[in-house]
Amino acid sequence: MTENILVIQTAFLGDLILTTPLFREIKKKYPGSKMTVIVNKGTDSVLEGNPWIDEIIPLDKKQIKSSIFGFWNFCKELRKRNFTLCISPHFSFRSSIMAFLSGAPKRIGYKTAGFSFLLNERKSRLLRGPHEVDKLLSLLYSEEERKNISKQPELFWKEGSVTGIRAEMKKYGLEKGNYILVSPSSVWETKRLPAEKFRTVSKQLFEKTGLKIVLTGGKGDLQLCEEVGEGFGINLSGKTSLPEMSYLMSGAALLVTNDSSPIHFASAFDVPTLAAFGATIPAFGYTPLASKTFISEVNGLDCRPCGIHGGRVCPKKHFRCMLEQDTGRMVEEGIRLIRG
């Protein structure tokens, strides 16, 4: 049977990237079906060019949260589309309400989602252990069926969307394999390796490998990236759209970052990844999926993890999970990842 499928994934950018294998597998399981994806407004361009998705609907979550009438009208419009199947990887109660009001007779999601009683096929989800992609694919397949399915995220771009970054790369002499990407920011402060440690690692990698150092981030990360790379780095913070970030990432020799979305960009292109984990832990399932990776962390701290996303400040006031990171080891591992 040909399905008219709705997928609701309005989570953070990294979560959306990790959902791309699910998009692929949905279309493989239901060939000939139409798939519409609702995403958080501002993240939609990361899915441009994705061959599995037929339509993307950006949702302004701030507007929806502030107006019950706006939310109701949005759901009314969804219902007119006559969806036959809704899959909701998102946990919020609004997503469950949206799934219910879409009118789709079959609604799949997690038991732990808010208002999950509005879903009629609820899947168990472990907090720790499996990778997030595996958890997402569990909405579609059994554990046995998932064994031979690729977990690698997929990112694409349209040629017209990357002309700007191509010009920037030409300007700075950036070519495939001759630069290291350093992304020092995170939405959550306790997931950020301190700027001085990023600077130490970046400068030593620059001196010991001869590769160019490129700093990336949002417009709000300009000063942070300047602090990290002053005197040796190329600061492209705030200068890349999401498709341009994909393009830039695809040519990197190494990514150095925190537990944040750049990890998942790198996984899509199998870019070697050096990631510092502080407040969060690898067991949550958001680790790099590239074939060559190293996770730097401070073991033996009974306060880790202090939250699924980290937080604004260290609840113990010592921030040892990041302040005690071994930059010497990080540099050694970074060189090893580059040289294979």
From TrEMBL:
<dbReference type="GO" id="GO:0005829">
    <property type="term" value="C:cytosol"/>
</dbReference>
<dbReference type="InterPro" id="IPR051199">
    <property type="entry name" value="LPS_LOS_Heptosyltrfase"/>
</dbReference>
<dbReference type="GO" id="GO:0009244">
    <property type="term" value="P:lipopolysaccharide core region biosynthetic process"/>
</dbReference>
<keyword id="KW-0328">Glycosyltransferase</keyword>
<dbReference type="GO" id="GO:0008713">
    <property type="term" value="F:ADP-heptose-lipopolysaccharide heptosyltransferase activity"/>
</dbReference>
<dbReference type="Pfam" id="PF01075">
    <property type="entry name" value="Glyco_transf_9"/>
</dbReference>
<protein>
    <submittedName>
        <fullName>Glycosyltransferase family 9 protein</fullName>
    </submittedName>
</protein>
<dbReference type="InterPro" id="IPR002201">
    <property type="entry name" value="Glyco_trans_9"/>
</dbReference>
<keyword id="KW-0808">Transferase</keyword>
